[in-house]
Structure formats: C-alpha cells, structure tokens
Amino acid sequence: xxxxxxxxxxxxxxxxxxxxxxxxxxxxxxxxxxxxxxxxxxxxxxxxxxxxxxxxxxxxxxxxxxxxxxxxxxxxxxxxxxxxxxxxxxxxxxxxxxxxxxxxxxxxxxxx
Length: 112
Description:
- Its EC number is 4.1.2.50.
- By secondary structure, the protein is an alpha+beta fold.
- It has helices at residues 52-63, 68-71, 78-88; strands at residues 2-14, 28-40, 66-67, 92-100, 103-108.
- The chain has one domain (2-18, 28-108): Tetrahydropterin Synthase, Chain A (2-Layer Sandwich), CATH 3.30.479.
- It is built from three helices and five strands; from the N terminus they run E-E-H-E-H-H-E-E.
- The protein has a five-stranded mixed sheet.
- Strand 4 (92-100) and strand 5 form a beta hairpin.
- It starts with a strand and ends with a strand.
C-alpha cells in the first residue's frame, strides 16, 4: 500500500448555524490547515497515488479566500468540511481540518 498526505493552508470565512447562542453564528474567518491522506494499492501510470497539484486544485483552489457558507451546501463546521474534502479526492481516506490552534476535526471514510 502506498500513502501520501498533502497539507494546505486555506484562508476562508464562515458562520455556523447552531441551535444555541454562540459567537460562531457571526461571520468570521480562519486560516485553516487542511491535511488530506490518500492511499492506493497500485501507483497510477505516472507512478503516483495521486497528483499533489490536483489535490491542491480540488481543495485549496476551490475554498481559499472564499465564504464557505456560499461554497458548500451544508453547515460549514470543521467536521463537515473534513468529510467534504475526503469526498473530493477518490484516493482520499482521511482528512484533518484545523480551524485554529487546539481545534481540529478528522473524518475517516469507512473502510471496505
């Protein structure tokens, strides 16, 4: 099995839709650290699990400097963002999203 990981810093804003009072319901920004983990039993024709540049384009290129409430069709919590990132890359099995120091969410796709 081959494994790669790609870490990207994304500047983006969001506001959370919550059923309790919180300052996070106000629009605010983070410099998110997003790490995607990919794997493959066999390397592709180019000798890669997947192309780091393609991973960056799909995640960073779409989210960076955006309003996550406008870009994503769900409440943009760190947990939901982690799942969305994992679903964007076929070879991705896990994503970690750090929205600030000490606040990190991880999504791991079900193993088959």
